[in-house]
Amino acid sequence: QVPLVESGGGLVQSGGSLRLSCTAAGVTVDDEHIGWYRQAPGQERQGLACISRIEGRTYYVDSVKGRFDISRDNAKNTVYLQMNNLKPEDTAIYYCAIKSRGCAGRASHWGRGTQVTVSA
């Protein structure tokens, strides 16, 4: 398995911003499709955003489009999720994952997650 490590979670106030990082060991992120997911208590895990190895194309679900931005820094071998205008309903554990067959495909490797809590 490829180790993935998320970081940057924490407690923020509603309307605030947070940047999450996903670092992969043993793999080059610009050779992979990387997705961000979240899971709130009692809810199923949902995909939020993805950055493709194909021309660095990005994709977002409607609930975060315009608020969240996914990007990568190849020199640091890191994928980021910039989250702006956070809302209490964004509270969840956030995960990054390698997707095996493009951004429309399934996740094949997961990190352990990082907690994001947004207070009202």
Quick structural gist:
The protein has 120 residues and is an all-beta fold.
The proportion of strand residues reads over 45%
Order of helices and strands: EEEEEEEEEEE
- Low-confidence blocks of residues: none
Please tell me what the overall shape is.
globular
Rg (CA only)? 13 Å
Q: Number of helical runs? A: 0
State the total count of DSSP E strands: 11
SSE-based structural type: mainly beta
Q: Roughly what is the average pLDDT, rounded to an integer?
A: 96
Task: Please outline the major beta sheet.
Answer: 7 strands, mixed
Kindly state the percentage of residues in helix: under 10%
Termini separation comes to 38 Å
Write a structural description:
The chain has 120 residues and is mainly beta. 0% of the residues lie in helices and 51% in strands. The chain contains no helices and 11 strands. The strands form 2 sheets. Strands 2, 4, 5, 6, 9, 10 and 11 form a 7-stranded mixed beta sheet that branches. A 4-stranded antiparallel beta sheet has the order 1-3-8-7, with no helix packed on it.
Strand and helix map with partners:
Elements lengths: L3 E4 L2 E4 L4 E7 L8 E7 L6 E6 L6 E3 L7 E6 L4 E6 L8 E8 L7 E4 L3 E6 L1
Parallel strand pairs: 2-11
Antiparallel strand pairs: 1-3, 3-8, 4-5, 4-9, 5-6, 7-8, 9-10, 9-11
